[in-house]
């Protein structure tokens, strides 16, 4: 019960923001229309039930006129039913797509905002496969929540209407056993109730493990899909390493989990289907068996008997909502749990930067980047880099070196404000523009011009400027392909990608440019030319580079080295090409 209450509380928390959003008028109107139509459909069911009594009595009495009249009534009822059913589905789908669009956009904003997508990974993948949460789970949540709510409501109303009818019919057709009449008020209602309770309990007992099994199934399927995507993304590496065999084994083992779990679902579903279909079959005949003695004792007409059977099955169906919807409910609960986990992971990634033991990235009025009492840590809490009173001065060009794994890239991540582990403060000039270029720049799939100017809009720069930037970095041939669509990370060599990255920097002209081995794939003369271009075209830009080649020294005013200092590394400024001993920290 507590479980149910907490699931409902989560559903409420996830569902309600849409109905309070800017789209609330459309959302509420559509929801009201869907519910109103559902209630009208129940009313038609009640009318059809009453019609059945009249229709079968007309048959039993060989009354042709009544028969024809009732056929006419049925045509009217059936036509109304069809029109309502068509519009109910149409409006339901309309609401679904609006609600889903709103939720998807809201999740995308939260996931992409504040670098949560990156921090969630740092936190150890608390919510697996966010892509699945946003693409699949939101769709299922909206669809299932709406259908379950509407069906539940319809069941309650059906129950209320038919219980009244069935109660009356219990009077008209008293319980007759072995020639004796027993007057139990509303015995047909009680019989339907007992029947439904027994079915529900049995279904829950057999079906409850399905909730977890469905949850796991979704996860295994998503894992498998994700690994397939990784193979596609890294297909060149895999091909040259002849890694196909290893991939086959890995993928087969991932798919093995999908299959093993599915077998469990199959065997559970088999048992559950035996129960639910047996239950449905018995339900067809059950009311006739109960009313038959009264019928054969001529206490009730054929019409009364048919009406009773149909009312009984309506009550029983409404009561068995849980039995019929068990699979959907199980699926729904796992969808809700996954979305809840996703929301929690986003929240905890957000609060990561607000925790007391995190790095503060603040803006200040000065024109340099200042590191004060900074201690960078690994996610597991081990110290990585300590820096205090260190500044990156305006327009200066700094070369950062140090052993592999010392934390050079992590220092860049901290300055960019996405590395939360550690303490101390990083002050960045207010309104300063920073650009980080890694060794492997990212290019969205699409036209080349959009890839170069990313993250600006494709039309943020004139075509001539983009062409000039490409020519400046030594990619004149690409200058004629700006409108070509492509997967540029796959189509260009790493050196070409790095040139393209520098072209991006030339266009954006940031005040601070951080180059994390961003030219390391070029030969030395090629690298030198790019630094020359940066110096000429971005004379005001403060450049901080990570690199290992000694030839880079010529393009920097200052050399800073990360040196081991106990259990961590610290920054030592060694001046231009100078071998200043360690310990002369800024
Ligand atoms: N997301 C992460 N989770 C756990 N550890 C990490 C993560 N990112 C980096 N590290 C660890 O932090 C340390 C510093 O990594 P970083 O990439 O900053 O080193 P680096 O000095 O740039 O190395 P290289 O010169 O080899 O590129 C490494 O030991 C690395 O394993």
UniProtKB/TrEMBL annotation:
Which N-terminal residues, if any, form the signal peptide?
none
Which stretches make up the ABC transporter domain?
A: 369-582
Q: Which UniProt keywords apply?
A: ATP-binding, Membrane, Nucleotide-binding, Transmembrane, Transmembrane helix, Transport
Record-linked PROSITE patterns: ABC_TM1F, ABC_TRANSPORTER_1, ABC_TRANSPORTER_2
Gene3D superfamilies xrefs: ABC transporter type 1, transmembrane domain, P-loop containing nucleotide triphosphate hydrolases
UniProt KW Transmembrane helix keyword: yes
What molecular function terms (GO) are annotated for this protein? ATP binding
Please state every residue range assigned to the domain named ABC transmembrane type-1.
30-331
The keyword Signal is assigned to this record: no
Per the record, the major location class is: membrane
Q: How does it sit in the membrane?
A: Multi-pass membrane protein
InterPro entries xref list: AAA+_ATPase, ABC1_TM_dom, ABC1_TM_sf, ABC_transporter-like_ATP-bd, ABC_transporter-like_CS, ABC_transporter_sub-D, P-loop_NTPase
**Places the protein is found:** Cell membrane
User: Membrane-spanning regions, if any?
Assistant: 30-48, 68-91, 148-169, 189-215, 272-296
The record's similarity note reads: Belongs to the ABC transporter superfamily.
Q: What does this protein do?
A: Involved in beta-(1-->2)glucan export. Transmembrane domains (TMD) form a pore in the inner membrane and the ATP-binding domain (NBD) is responsible for energy generation.
Q: What is this protein's name? A: ABC transporter ATP-binding protein/permease
> Which species does the entry assign this protein to?
Bradyrhizobium aeschynomenes
Lineage per the UniProt record: Bacteria, Pseudomonadati, Pseudomonadota, Alphaproteobacteria, Hyphomicrobiales
């Amino acid at each position: 019960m507590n479980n149910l209450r907490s699931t409902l509380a989560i559903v409420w928390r996830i569902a309600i923001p849409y109905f309070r959003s800017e789209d609330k008028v459309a959302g509420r109107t559509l929801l009201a229309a869907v519910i109103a139509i559902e209630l009208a459909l129940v009313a038609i069911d009640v009318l059809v039930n009453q019609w059945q009594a009249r229709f079968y009595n007309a048959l039993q009495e060989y009354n042709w006129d009544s028969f024809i009249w009732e056929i006419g009534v049925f045509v009217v009822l059936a036509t109304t039913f069809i029109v309502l059913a068509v519009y109910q589905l149409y409006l339901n789908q309309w609401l679904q797509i609006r609600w889903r669009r709103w939720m998807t956009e809201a999740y995308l904003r939260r996931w992409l905002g504040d670098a949560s997508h990156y921090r969630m990974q740092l936190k150890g993948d608390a919510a697996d496969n966010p892509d699945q949460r946003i693409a699949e789970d939101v769709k299922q949540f909206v669809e299932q929540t709406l259908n379950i709510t509407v069906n539940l409501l319809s069941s309650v109303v059906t129950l209320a209407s038919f219980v009244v009818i069935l109660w009356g019919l219990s009077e008209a057709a008293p319980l007759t056993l072995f020639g004796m009449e027993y007057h139990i008020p509303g015995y047909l209602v009680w019989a339907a109730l007992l029947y439904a309770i027994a079915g529900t309990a049995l279904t829950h007992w057999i079906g409850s493990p399905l909730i977890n099994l469905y949850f796991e199934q979704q996860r295994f399927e998503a894992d498998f899909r994700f690994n397939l995507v990784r193979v596609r993304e890294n297909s060149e590496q895999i091909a040259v390493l002849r890694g196909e065999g290893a991939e086959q084994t890995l993928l087969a083992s991932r798919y093995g989990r999908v299959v093993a779990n599915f077998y469990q679902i199959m065997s559970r579903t088999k048992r559950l289907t035996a129960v639910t279909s047996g239950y449905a079959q018995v339900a067809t005949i059950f009311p006739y068996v109960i009313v038959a003695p009264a019928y054969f004792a001529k206490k009730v007409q054929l019409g009364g008997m048919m009406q009773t059977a149909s009312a009984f099955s309506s009550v029983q169906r409404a009561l068995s909502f849980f039995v019929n919807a068990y699979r959907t409910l199980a699926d729904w609960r796992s969808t809700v749990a996954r979305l809840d986990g996703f929301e929690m992971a986003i929240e905890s990634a957000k609060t990561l930067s607000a925790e007391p033991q995190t790095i503060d990235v603040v803006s200040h009025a000065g024109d340099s980047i200042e590191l004060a009492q900074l201690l960078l840590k690994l996610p597991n809490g081990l110290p990585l880099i300590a820096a205090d009173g260190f500044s990156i001065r305006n327009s200066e060009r700094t070369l950062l070196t140090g052993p592999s794994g010392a934390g050079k890239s992590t220092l860049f991540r901290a300055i960019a404000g996405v590395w939360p582990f550690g303490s101390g403060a990083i002050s960045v000039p207010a309104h300063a523009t920073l650009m980080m270029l890694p060794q492997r720049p990212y290019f969205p799939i699409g036209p080349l011009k959009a890839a170069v100017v990313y993250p600006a809009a494709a039309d943020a720069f004139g075509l001539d400027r983009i062409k000039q930037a490409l020519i400046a970095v030594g990619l004149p041939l690409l200058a004629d392909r700006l409108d070509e669509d492509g997967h540029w990370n796959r189509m260009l060599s790493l050196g070409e990608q790095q040139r393209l990255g520098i072209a991006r920097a030339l266009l954006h002209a940031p005040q601070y440019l951080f180059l994390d081995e961003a030219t390391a794939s070029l030969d030395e003369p090629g690298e030198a030319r790019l630094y020359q271009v940066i110096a000429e075209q971005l004379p005001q830009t403060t450049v901080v580079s990570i690199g290992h080649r000694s030839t880079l020294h010529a393009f920097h005013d200052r050399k800073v080295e990360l040196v081991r200092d106990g259990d961590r590394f610290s920054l030592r400024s060694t001046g231009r090409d100078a071998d200043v001993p360690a310990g002369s920290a800024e």
